[in-house]
Amino acid sequence: MPSVVPESVLVGTEGDPSPADLYALYREERGPLLWYLRSQGVEEHEAEDAIQAAFVRLLLAKTEVREPRWWLRTVALNEYRRSSPSIPSSRRRAVVVPVSPADLSSQCAATPFSDPAELTEPGLWAHDAIASLPDRQRRVMAAHIEGRTNQQIADDLGVSNASVRQSLRRARRALSERLRTDADDERG
Amino acid sequence: MAPWQRFGDHDETEVDGRVEASRQAFIARHDAAFDFEAGWAEIVRRADTTTRSSPRLVAVEPVDRRRDGHAATNPAPAVADPHRRSGRRRLMARVGSIAAAAAMVAAIVVGTDDKAQADLASRIANATTRALADSIEHEVSDWTWTALPVDAETWRDQTTAAVRSLNYAADGSGRSLDWGPLVAPTPDDEGPTLGPFPVLAVDYCFGEYEIEEFPVPEGVIDVNASIARSVAEGLDDGSMRTDGTEVVDGQLLIRVVEVGGSESLAWYVDPGTYRPVRIADPVEGYVTTIEYLPRTPDLLAQFTPVIPEGLVQVDELTRTDDYRPCS
User: Fold this and answer.
1) Mean pLDDT of B173-177
2) What is the model's pLDDT at position A116?
């Protein structure tokens, strides 16, 4: 199916997208947005609230929203961080406590899969795995999977292109290790 | 053999493919069970009951925080190297006793002995963490991987996560883009603030400036963008390791590399302070040097860029990226 997401969404000025356009955007982007927030360690009910808040803000936006896909992700994540009283204000930037690769295996083994059979199908594996990564790697890997280029990620995070590549390498290594651990667990 | 049992070799494409397959399955599962019409109706209802607010903009007067009062006409930041060339960066080269440094390093780096490596890594990680605790990390970059070589300086306040970024024009004509918070951090600030907050972008090439809400769009500035911190973390978690020594611009430095990473990419640590002072990748074409500046009120005040006389405020800068040359 061809993408219905426009390159640019204009709200509140001449050339407004129609309600049908925005609804189509919602239909197309809600699922990926939910996955993105879950990959950042956001619980599902909190992610649902954040998605609603992000789309409300999109409806009310008065200025041009470039890259609406990424706009929605960053706004939704910030909405979650603002609304979450469980995260002290000074820590809202780091939702999940970073873990070292040395600790990763034990954490992976403790990850609550609702159904062990999910390991045998490409089910809910990825967002849990990414959510268990250290903060920087989690954000870089999720953005990479969402199609952001290394330079775009670098610009988003205020880091160097080299730092993004480094974080990606580390994230892939950790995910690879987790895949191996999960496979071992499945074999029993 | 289950598909993921092949991932032990850390194949990037396969790891990405496995993640993407899982992502698509997650999306399909949730989309199939979700009532989109009801969800959208709720969003429209909430939008109808929410007060519209204008974007938060702050009136701007030309900023001059330098003590000498010449910032408007001579906006060079006091923290910049006064001997800096306008085009290619003169690489930082300390003049020191190589022999003394070599002896020091030799006493620490004993071949490939695991314990010596671990001790050195731990010493670097601890020294770097201490150095960053109350510092401003100043990075000076020579980039050649862009279409044209571009230099840049970045100051990162490790306490507030405030960042000032100053890009130089590739043609050597001076400043290109200056970017930083509209309200500078102060010594009393205790931690990073969640945005959005106004930042000032001054474009010397096009003679204009803008105030925008940052993060754009509501992303985050990452204090961990610190290169030095990434070295400390890498050595601490074992993803980086020391790799002997190398004389760089006349200075003996400890090499740090990523385990299993690029062969051309290396970080360099000063054996006298155990702090990272350089990252370089000759294949990719960049060199960044690092210094650790005290978090003084004067320096923090200069995180806000200066607007030279004659520049015009615009809603959106003409340029589309930081690397565009002036000409």
Assistant:
1) 81
2) 37
Question: Which SS3 state, helix, strand or coil, does residue A38 take?
Answer: helix
pTM of the predicted model as reported, rounded to 2 decimal places: 0.50
- Beta pairing partners, B208: B203, B312
Count of residues making up chain B = 327
Topology of the domain comprising A101-187: Arc Repressor Mutant, subunit A (1.10.10)
Q: Are strands B208-214 and B312-313 parallel, antiparallel or unpaired?
A: parallel
Give the model confidence (pLDDT) of B57-85 as tens digits.
333 333 332 223 333 332 223 333 323 33
Residue A183 reports pLDDT greater than 70: no
Residue ranges covered by each domain of chain B: 3-48, 98-313
- A8 to chain B, any CB pair closer than 8 A? The answer is no
* Closest residue to B43, CB basis, from A34, A52, A172: A52
| Alpha-carbon distance A14 to nearest alpha carbon in chain B (angstroms) | 17
pLDDT in tens, A58-79: 887 766 666 788 878 877 887 7
User: What contacts B94, CB < 8 A, 6 or more positions away?
Assistant: B250, B251, B270
Interface of A with B in 101-120 (CB under 8 A): 101-102, 120
Q: Does domain B98-313 have CATH number 2.50.20.10?
A: yes
Query: What residue segments make up the domains of chain A, in order of their start?
Result: 8-89, 101-187
